[in-house]
Amino acid sequence: MAITSQNLPQTLGALRSSERFSERRMLNRTVKDELRENLLTRLGSKEPLFPGIIGYEDTVVPQIVNAILSRHNFILLGLRGQAKTRIIRMLTTLFDDWMPYIAGSEIRDSPYRPISRYAREIVLHKNDDTPIAWMTPLERYVEKLATPDVTIADMIGDIDPIKAARRGQDISDELTIHYGLLPRANRGIFAINELPDLAGKIQVGLFNIMQEGDVQIKGYPLRMPLDLLLVFTANPEDYTARGKIITPLKDRIGSEVRTHYPITVEQGLAITRQESWIERDGPVKIAMPAYMQEVIEQVAFLAREDKKVDKRSGVSQRLPITVTENVVSNAEARAVRCGEKIAVAKVSDIYNALPSITGKLELEYEGELKGPETVARELIRLAVARIYSSYFDGLNMNSIVQFFDIGGSMKLEGALSSRDAIRRLQTIHGLMEKTSALGAGPGDSDALRVSAAEFVLEGLHAHRRISRSEEMGFSAEERRREPAPGEEDPRRAKTKRQYN
Length: 500
Prior knowledge:
The protein has 24 helices and 15 strands. By secondary structure, the protein is of the alpha/beta class.
């Protein structure tokens, strides 16, 4: 039978007689002890600690393990889109299935060591008849996004005159306190996202809980020894951009764990496949060829290396995820308009997904001069060139290039059906034979073969062997003729004529 809160002890007396939740076992067992014990058990059973987190197995995860085993409060430090928040939320999987507390307690007092006046009075008057409630692991996690308007009262607590009036108590009575987020997270995890955005005086308010393990409520000479694991996240850029972590607080954080973007394209591909919404219910079947996934992932990797993109801000892993979803949506819409049963993503769909790229790039001065859309188009072209080379490096493409050199052109409109597109593409000698290298042979669907053929043409354009424009489609590359000895450069002559 599954254990539910109804199957568990409902009074303090029943709890004391329970072997699993006995006073001897739980009295001195803190949250950090609980996480440590359960982590050691998980390590011994070789279960994955953070399922779904890819690329951190040998870098970030061992550091988090060390922090928890050392009973440290810790911070995850890294650029945006590095799964920091997701990791700290998964720490709840290291909690026990159920945790008892005194029913009605706002700060979830331990039945064996109550710290609030309310809980102490309940135990004093009812003793073994004290009612017990139960928390699940998710209920033991409190998260706060740091913003400049957060106050001490929000985090720690304050006097509540309304509560005093309703209960008919003196305003100096402890029972008139309105507890903040920190006390309400007692016996659990309290996470603060983007810590540098928290005002300095609020960061000072965290000193006591981190150093002494207790919290002081403004206006009250009381100390409440809270039982917490504090976890923070921060972006290194924020140390100087929007705020900073004050030195005394940083000194009290036990471990600083650095996160990172995927180290290899394979890791990035695995994350994007896992997180992007590709499997959809609808009138058409979605197909995302491997070379398309590689191009999209390569855009993110190239952006992280590009001098026109601000490296301090980073390029989030959300970029390839959202681009993939936009590309699939564009292919889906095209297939529905053309009455086709399968939607296959093409390189042209990536250009139509520019809004999901430009909004995620913070540009340096040079990039701002060019504009985000121009930078994004350059990144797509470079990504296509790199992936094209991995499939066709060394292959002879002269027959395809010759088609354009003798005056041929090829435009594939968005509303063109796959069958009509195949008819046009077959006029280019040698093109359709090359698609087999991309897994699109004669027996495959027209949509898949069109996507592969367009990728070949885009690759030739990326390597500047043919040209492409929105108006003309694919055409011959304009090659600059070097001036003969003593002859003036024709481009310079043209400029001179225009000036005169």
